[in-house]
Amino acid sequence: MAAFLSAFRIRILLCGAFLLFLLSFFWKISGHDYNSYLPMLKSRRPNAAIFILLAPNRITQALVALQNVEDRFNRRLKYPIILFTAEDEVHFITEEVKAKANHITDGRVSFATATKESWDIPPWMDQERVKSSLETIGFSTGYRAMCRYYSGFFWKNPALAPYEWLWRLDTDIQFHCDVPYDPIETLISKKALYGFVQVNYDVSWVQPSLASNVSEFMYKNRHLIPADANQHFVWKGDAGVGKAMAGTAGNDDWTGACMYNNFEISHRSVWESLVYTRFFEYLEKAGGFFYERWGDSPIHSYGLAMSLRKDQVVQFDDLGYQHQGWDYECPGLDRCACIEDEHTRGKPSYTYSYQILAYNSFLDFKNNGKA
């Protein structure tokens, strides 16, 4: 009998301890600290990394941006961060810079270099023609190299090879809102492959032959382009899409709209697809990255418009994301440290949604113009 009572008391104590643990756990997740328990509730975090390309004159700016990113969401999400530099600029990443970046990110940062092949002007190019373009169009060779790198090389870098989801940010950015969710999880839940924040408009005078080259590629590779691809985002109406597919479209047929990719979350399959791979190879042979200033933002937008459906792209509108101190859209939420005014209500280029810019002929619009 004594042995039975002793065993019974032990069971009571164990049950009581377990109940106290449960009460403590649910008390925690009901309070402000619930985010620290999310890893216990999730079976698997997305295989993702955040990456930023550093310019030597923007290192302090990059550290400030890192602090903002960590404070707003990544101290909770804990995604690794990879900081890239061009091969001939590695010496600017001093031990002091590394120490500060490690402190800000709790040691989740690493450093990598862009290979010379992905950065330097290809040796087959006409150097005099490149020099002439620098004088007439402007934009440095470094800027053009960056556009080329983001257009066709970044996902191939060994430092990013282990990751499925690639989250690009820039050094000159700020998130004005706390981000209480994981944007990558949002893309996954929506079965999307690409996420961005702002629609911007580029100009044709810096890339006068880009639209015609894109159209020529589409004509020669039309068998690779899905019938339901969201081409109306970059081409003006059915007539513009028709001319693009026939290889006769030019700047007058281009909407100018770009998914502004200084904030960009993509699944690597987008860039590794056959259509995008051949698209970049075609543009590379044309030489417009250095003979003109072909931007990575319009090239990504052209490539995505010929390969993805509109439902495979998500536009985030609740992050309070700002680039280079320009006007941005303040969501008007309590978790955002911004006040709506003439600079934060969003200019037309920022408030037009990805769906709206796809034109009525392509979408089923209802009431206020939202798909």
From TrEMBL:
A Pfam family reported for this protein in Swiss-Prot or TrEMBL: Glyco_transf_15
- GO CC terms on record? Golgi apparatus; membrane
Name any Gene Ontology BP term: cell wall mannoprotein biosynthetic process
GO MF terms here are:
alpha-1,2-mannosyltransferase activity
By its UniProt entry, which InterPro entries does this protein fall under? Glyco_trans_15, Nucleotide-diphossugar_trans
Q: Which UniProt keywords apply?
A: Transferase
Asked whether the keyword Amino-acid biosynthesis is assigned, the reply is no
Q: Which family does it belong to?
A: Belongs to the glycosyltransferase 15 family.
| Entry protein name | Glycosyltransferase family 15 protein
Q: Which organism is it from?
A: Psilocybe cyanescens
Q: What is the lineage of its organism?
A: Eukaryota, Fungi, Dikarya, Basidiomycota, Agaricomycotina
